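Kindly review these tokens for lecture notes.

. . .
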Amino acid sequence: MKYECGLDIAELEKRTSKDYLLTKKMLDVDAKEFLELADGDKKALSYLVKAARIIEKINMQLDSHHNLPFLKYLEEMCKKGDKKAQLTKILFDAQKGIFALDCESNLVKLAANLEKQQGRGLYPENLSKEEFHKILIQMIKDNKIKEVKKILNQRSVVEYTKDKKELVAIDYIDKFQEDFKKIAELLLRASCVSTCIEFNEYLRLQSQAFLVGDAMLDAYADKKWAAMQDTPLEFTITRENYSDEMTETVYENEELSKLLKENDIEVISKDYLGARVGIVNKEGTNYILKVKDYLPLMARHMPYSDDYEQVISDDSDISQTMVDVDLIEVAGDVGAFRAGITLAENLPNNDKLSLTIGGGRRNVYHRQIRFVTSEDAKQKIQEKLDNILEKEFHQYYDENMDHPFTIGHENGHSLGPKEGCEALGKYKSIIEENKADMVSLAMIDLLTEEGLYTEEERKKFIVTYAVDNMLKSKPELTQAHRVRSVMQNYYFIQNEAMKISKEGFLSINIDRMVYIARQMLGEIIQVQLSKDFSVGEKYVLDNFVWTSEMELVSQKLKKISKRLNGKTEQKLADKLFLEQV
């Protein structure tokens, strides 16, 4: 196929300029965190960075059938000095693909004559939702239940059969066999030089899982990874399914949904793959671990806690590790800067097999992504406060309180119903992210009473959350993390915990915020317990309301910040990648 760049020079120059493209800097080549490591760990990181970049190559193919050939086209044109290609490649490398939504929810399309596919690279190109449903219905009627279960599994890539009448699923280990073999070899090499025995055991388990398409091997690796608390290095294979827009559509077809239920076919959205390489920061980790002792108490205070089983309980060990990580490399799905980039992750998710064999979860926090360091960025924060927040609340805004809120959010994923949410279909992720936010906010009074936070920190926690929840534009329904922000803002305004004046200034009823957050959390738990697509859809659509007040604030935010997207700068990773080891 013949490719060409989709944006003109003026648009490319704008979107790649400093004001429009934020840069998040990972560890540099002279970072003391790296220089202080043992030689074996430094060498191990070189292998791990190389492995991460192969993961990125695989994920690009899951993201779009055209990503790799378009990247090759850009590289060839860059060698010829083509300025358009050079600027396009900056954006491609930042968003790690041809298609992405920016932070104003505009679709960025870097290649001309291509349209974003609902099935991305996970399904046959140009497979429509209607045809997908029709084929599955016929396959179920033909009693091809086993084949349909594989198609609706989180770790498969789907293709047409030769006659194009049916679909067939291929485990992604088998689909990208040669690349996974290379990764397995690199992980084995890293395990031979790293200084940490426990970390090396994990690398060997993950290496084995990349050689055979067997979910149980991944489960063993996940279980080991989630149990590691004291390791100098961090290496993560991220597998999350928030971006799959096709699989969950099966619930929108009544006939198909009924057939799936009758034949006991579980529907799990497909995973996109990422990799994280970093160095565990002990001081930051100790701060995060302070909350761990409070998790059973938080579990007891969850709404309707007697109506479901959750991961955290009083009568068992807390199977959850937590680390704060100085990042060297974020690759693939976890490194894609699309409107934003991940501050932290709580993995494995509920659909993963490791949780059924006694495995726990691991929370990893991203230091370099959360830091606000430049004077320009700090000035922008003050300008935002001056334009959208009533003066009396300025004293309580503290960008450093985003981190405690994120800690509460990530722990929130471990609280509440641990199964059955897949039936909520395309609304599952929105509702789960909403739940995690409301856990963080609803528990702040409890944690203040217990002494984890001071009264001053409590006020800052609430006000900072409210301000940072304001968006620059109405998001698309596919943007789970942003849709939940709109839902929350609407809910708090309707319940008189927040107010936006006709001039576009936010005021906050600090004491009422926590009460309303707990009320919303209870409603979310009831939606998850319903296991009903229609209930989830109604709850999201009833609260996903973009008001004129929100629009007024968004227009102000756009004037303050021109940023449309961002990129990562990974100088140490680039150096390690080129090293001969």
